[in-house]
Structures are given as C-alpha cells and as structure tokens.
Amino acid sequence: MSTDDAASPRTPAYRELAEKLRADIEAGVYSVGRKMPTESVLQSKHNVSRHTVREALQILLTDGLIYKVQGSGTYVGGRRLDSKGRYIRSIGSLDELIIWPETDTEVIEPFTVVVAPLVAARLELPYIEVSRAVVRRHYNELPFVLTHHYVAPELGEQLAAEGVPAVGEGTVIGAAEKFLTKPVMGAQQEITAMIAQEPEAELIGCRVGDAILLIERLYYDADGKFIEFTSSHFNPRRYSYRQDVRRRTT
After folding, report:
1. What does the pLDDT look like over 161-205, one tens digit per residue?
2. With contact defined as beta carbons under 8 Å apart, do 190 and 213 qualify?
3. Domain HTH gntR-type: where (predicted)?
C-alpha cells in the first residue's frame, strides 16, 4: 500500500510529506541555497504520487521555505519564524495566491447577485450587477482576514452550484478556472493601510480604529479579461504579508 493510501484522513499525504521536507530543511539535509530534488525524485524517494509532491512543495513555497527559479528549478530559501504567532504568507507567483495552507475558511455569505456599480466597472462588466460572496479565514482558530469576492453573475451562479466558496485551503479564483475559456494569468494588486470600521473590525478580531490592511486584487485571464475582484481586510497582528522579489535568470 502506498503512502497516499495509508495516510490518515485527518492528515493528508501531502501534509505529511510537507512536514518531512520541512524537517529535512530545518535539519540541514537540504541547506539554504541548495537546489531541491526534482518532483520525480521526491515521488520515488517518498513513494507518493506526483500530485502529493506538488501539493507538499506548494505548502513550502507559500511558507517561504523554498522558491522557484524559472528554467532552473526549486531552491531552499531558509526557515522563517514569527514569535507573535501570525500567519505569514510569502507570495512570489500566481500559484501561491490560490491556496492558503493551514487555514480554515468560514463562509459568511454565499454567492448572491447584488447591485454594485463601482465593482462592476472595475470588472468592466456592461451592467451594474455582480455576484458577491464573503468569507473569513482562520489561523490557529483565530480569524485574521475577511474577503469579499466579486465575479460576473453568470460565473457566480456556476460557482454557487459547485458549492464555492467552501471550507478548505482553496480559493474562488482557483475553483473558477474550470469554467473559463482562458486560464487565469495574473492579478493587479493594491495594498492600503486603513482604519478598521464595523463590522470588519469584529470579524477579524481587532478594535474599531485599529490600523489594518486592505488588499484588493483584480484577476485577469490570458486575454486580459477581468475575472474576479477581491477586497480583503487583514488584521496585521495576526497576519504578515511577505513578497519575494528576485532577479530573473536566463
């Protein structure tokens, strides 16, 4: 029986592998700056599926323990700790935006059609209605971000029929790709410091008047068409945003 088959339902195989690789990195088996083994090597060494390897590596990517160099491979970036217990998220690619390892999702509001002219304009829709869903994410059982998701009503109807958003690590934009004719290629992002207001303050565990982060993203497909707009309020005492910027190699 493979490791995938034997894994406990409470501990998915990809999480077990991620922890093994994390332990190897922290023990110096894979030192900082060293190139990681290929997916096929890891698959053979740990007797797991290619999908399990990719999901495990995605967790380490999001945690900032490893990073990818296009055309070269995956390298060890080192260990990061946050003594304050915040959820640290390292973003270096679109793939890292569509999964939230080690968090729990709470659906506050499923997709429903609302009138929102300004949001519809940002999505470049020819009408003023959009489909909106609201979710809250928890880390260590504490809420740290409240996100409003906006898509075209037709896409919102398809996602709602699929039960999206739902509890788990995935995202709306990740689930939406199966309904698109073109793949999602990127996102425009704005980060703003602001003062917490009700009801966002209570929902992310801070006080009215506290400084919080507002991160807005517009996701677009290969044709440049906007697919989703998200507006997220973060409690910075429980969340830290890290972006790795590297020189491209040839």
Report:
1. 999 999 877 789 989 999 999 999 999 999 999 999 999 999 999
2. no
3. 11-79
CB 194 within 8 A of CB 214: yes
Residues 29, 32, 34, 36, CA torsion sign: positive
Low-confidence winner among 19-28, 192-201, 208-217 (lowest mean pLDDT): 19-28
Give the contacts of 167 (CB within 8 A, at least 6 positions apart).
104, 105, 106, 107
State yes or no: pLDDT of 14 exceeds 80.
yes
Characterize 123-135 residue by residue with b for buried, 16 or more Cβ atoms within 10 angstroms of its Cβ, and e for exposed.
bebeeebbbbbbb
> What's the CA angle centered on 78, arms 138 and 213, to 5 degrees?
35
3-class secondary-structure state, position 14: helix
**Three-class SS of residue 6?**
helix
Phi, psi for residue 193 in degrees, rounded to 5: -85, 135
